[in-house]
Specification:
alpha+beta, Chitinase A, domain 3, 2 domains, 6-stranded mixed beta sheet, 6 strands, GreA/GreB_C_sf, translation elongation factor activity, protein biosynthesis, RNA polymerase binding, DNA binding
Protein backbone atom coordinates (compact mmCIF):
# COMPACT_ATOMS: atom_id res chain seq x y z
CA UNK A 1 0.00 0.00 0.00
CA UNK A 2 1.41 3.37 -1.03
CA UNK A 3 1.85 5.59 2.06
CA UNK A 4 2.41 8.71 -0.05
CA UNK A 5 -1.01 8.16 -1.63
CA UNK A 6 -2.52 7.84 1.86
CA UNK A 7 -0.76 11.05 2.89
CA UNK A 8 -2.31 12.78 -0.14
CA UNK A 9 -5.76 11.45 0.81
CA UNK A 10 -5.32 12.89 4.31
CA UNK A 11 -4.25 16.26 2.89
CA UNK A 12 -7.17 16.30 0.46
CA UNK A 13 -9.62 15.64 3.29
CA UNK A 14 -7.99 18.28 5.50
CA UNK A 15 -8.14 20.86 2.70
CA UNK A 16 -11.86 20.14 2.21
CA UNK A 17 -12.35 20.50 5.98
CA UNK A 18 -10.45 23.80 5.84
CA UNK A 19 -12.74 25.16 3.12
CA UNK A 20 -15.85 24.18 5.08
CA UNK A 21 -14.50 25.61 8.34
CA UNK A 22 -13.42 28.84 6.63
CA UNK A 23 -16.89 29.27 5.17
CA UNK A 24 -18.50 28.56 8.56
CA UNK A 25 -16.17 31.11 10.21
CA UNK A 26 -17.11 33.75 7.63
CA UNK A 27 -20.82 33.13 8.13
CA UNK A 28 -20.44 33.26 11.92
CA UNK A 29 -18.43 36.50 11.68
CA UNK A 30 -21.04 38.09 9.42
CA UNK A 31 -23.76 37.07 11.84
CA UNK A 32 -21.83 38.46 14.81
CA UNK A 33 -21.30 41.82 13.13
CA UNK A 34 -24.68 42.15 11.40
CA UNK A 35 -26.61 45.26 12.44
CA UNK A 36 -29.71 43.22 13.32
CA UNK A 37 -27.72 41.39 16.00
CA UNK A 38 -26.71 44.49 17.94
CA UNK A 39 -27.91 44.08 21.51
CA UNK A 40 -30.91 46.20 22.39
CA UNK A 41 -30.73 45.33 26.09
CA UNK A 42 -28.66 43.23 28.47
CA UNK A 43 -30.78 40.15 27.78
CA UNK A 44 -30.29 40.31 24.02
CA UNK A 45 -27.33 37.95 23.58
CA UNK A 46 -27.69 36.84 19.95
CA UNK A 47 -24.74 38.97 18.81
CA UNK A 48 -22.59 37.77 21.72
CA UNK A 49 -23.42 34.14 20.98
CA UNK A 50 -22.58 34.65 17.31
CA UNK A 51 -19.26 36.23 18.32
CA UNK A 52 -18.41 33.18 20.47
CA UNK A 53 -19.27 30.93 17.55
CA UNK A 54 -17.12 33.00 15.18
CA UNK A 55 -14.18 32.76 17.61
CA UNK A 56 -14.56 28.99 17.84
CA UNK A 57 -14.76 28.65 14.08
CA UNK A 58 -11.63 30.78 13.65
CA UNK A 59 -9.78 28.50 16.09
CA UNK A 60 -10.94 25.46 14.13
CA UNK A 61 -9.63 27.01 10.90
CA UNK A 62 -6.25 27.61 12.54
CA UNK A 63 -6.10 24.05 13.91
CA UNK A 64 -6.79 22.61 10.45
CA UNK A 65 -4.12 24.87 8.91
CA UNK A 66 -1.61 23.59 11.47
CA UNK A 67 -2.59 19.98 10.74
CA UNK A 68 -2.11 20.56 7.01
CA UNK A 69 1.35 22.00 7.65
CA UNK A 70 2.32 19.02 9.83
CA UNK A 71 1.04 16.50 7.29
CA UNK A 72 2.85 18.26 4.42
CA UNK A 73 6.10 18.17 6.41
CA UNK A 74 5.70 14.50 7.35
CA UNK A 75 8.52 12.49 5.82
CA UNK A 76 7.45 8.93 5.12
CA UNK A 77 10.35 6.63 5.86
CA UNK A 78 10.57 2.87 5.46
CA UNK A 79 10.07 0.83 8.60
CA UNK A 80 13.18 -0.50 10.33
CA UNK A 81 13.31 -2.99 13.19
CA UNK A 82 15.85 -0.78 14.98
CA UNK A 83 13.64 2.29 15.21
CA UNK A 84 10.32 0.48 15.47
CA UNK A 85 6.98 2.07 14.73
CA UNK A 86 7.27 5.83 14.21
CA UNK A 87 5.35 8.70 12.63
CA UNK A 88 4.28 7.85 9.10
CA UNK A 89 4.07 4.10 9.73
CA UNK A 90 1.28 2.02 8.26
CA UNK A 91 0.52 -0.68 10.81
CA UNK A 92 -1.60 -3.81 10.76
CA UNK A 93 -2.75 -4.91 14.21
CA UNK A 94 -4.67 -8.04 15.13
CA UNK A 95 -6.93 -7.94 18.16
CA UNK A 96 -7.67 -10.82 20.53
CA UNK A 97 -10.23 -12.22 18.04
CA UNK A 98 -7.61 -12.16 15.23
CA UNK A 99 -9.53 -9.34 13.53
CA UNK A 100 -7.11 -7.16 11.55
CA UNK A 101 -7.13 -3.37 11.57
CA UNK A 102 -4.96 -0.94 9.61
CA UNK A 103 -3.65 2.29 11.11
CA UNK A 104 -1.68 5.19 9.67
CA UNK A 105 0.23 6.89 12.46
CA UNK A 106 0.59 10.59 11.87
CA UNK A 107 0.85 14.00 13.48
CA UNK A 108 -2.01 15.63 15.37
CA UNK A 109 -5.13 16.98 13.76
CA UNK A 110 -6.18 14.36 11.25
CA UNK A 111 -8.15 11.65 12.98
CA UNK A 112 -10.17 10.12 10.16
CA UNK A 113 -10.98 6.92 8.34
CA UNK A 114 -9.65 6.45 4.80
CA UNK A 115 -10.82 3.91 2.26
CA UNK A 116 -8.32 2.48 -0.18
CA UNK A 117 -9.72 -0.23 -2.40
CA UNK A 118 -11.34 -2.83 -0.16
CA UNK A 119 -9.35 -1.73 2.90
CA UNK A 120 -10.24 0.76 5.58
CA UNK A 121 -7.38 2.63 7.26
CA UNK A 122 -7.82 4.53 10.51
CA UNK A 123 -5.58 7.60 10.69
CA UNK A 124 -4.55 8.28 14.28
CA UNK A 125 -2.25 10.71 16.01
CA UNK A 126 0.95 9.67 17.71
CA UNK A 127 -0.52 11.48 20.74
CA UNK A 128 -3.65 9.28 20.86
CA UNK A 129 -3.53 6.51 23.48
CA UNK A 130 -3.24 3.76 20.85
CA UNK A 131 -0.68 5.81 18.91
CA UNK A 132 1.46 6.22 22.02
CA UNK A 133 1.17 2.51 22.77
CA UNK A 134 2.39 1.61 19.25
CA UNK A 135 5.43 3.90 19.16
CA UNK A 136 8.67 1.92 19.11
CA UNK A 137 6.97 -1.47 18.72
CA UNK A 138 8.06 -3.90 16.04
CA UNK A 139 6.78 -7.02 14.27
CA UNK A 140 5.22 -9.54 16.63
CA UNK A 141 5.16 -7.15 19.60
CA UNK A 142 2.11 -6.83 21.79
CA UNK A 143 0.40 -3.45 21.99
CA UNK A 144 -1.56 -2.94 25.19
CA UNK A 145 -4.25 -0.29 25.38
CA UNK A 146 -5.76 0.48 28.76
CA UNK A 147 -9.29 1.79 28.56
CA UNK A 148 -11.95 2.56 31.14
CA UNK A 149 -13.52 -0.92 31.05
CA UNK A 150 -10.25 -2.85 30.99
CA UNK A 151 -7.39 -3.61 28.70
CA UNK A 152 -7.20 -4.42 24.99
CA UNK A 153 -4.35 -6.44 23.53
CA UNK A 154 -3.16 -6.29 19.93
CA UNK A 155 -0.35 -7.94 18.02
CA UNK A 156 1.70 -6.09 15.41
CA UNK A 157 1.31 -8.23 12.26
CA UNK A 158 3.17 -5.99 9.83
CA UNK A 159 4.48 -2.47 9.45
CA UNK A 160 5.21 -0.52 6.30
Amino acid sequence: MDKSLLQQLVLTRLEADLQAATHAAQVAHESATHEENIAENKYDTLGLEAAYLATGQARRVEAIRQAITLWRQLQLRPFTEESGIALGALICLADEDASEQLFLLGPNGASMKLHHGERSIQVISHEAPLGKAMLGKTLGDEVILKIANGTQHFEVLWVN
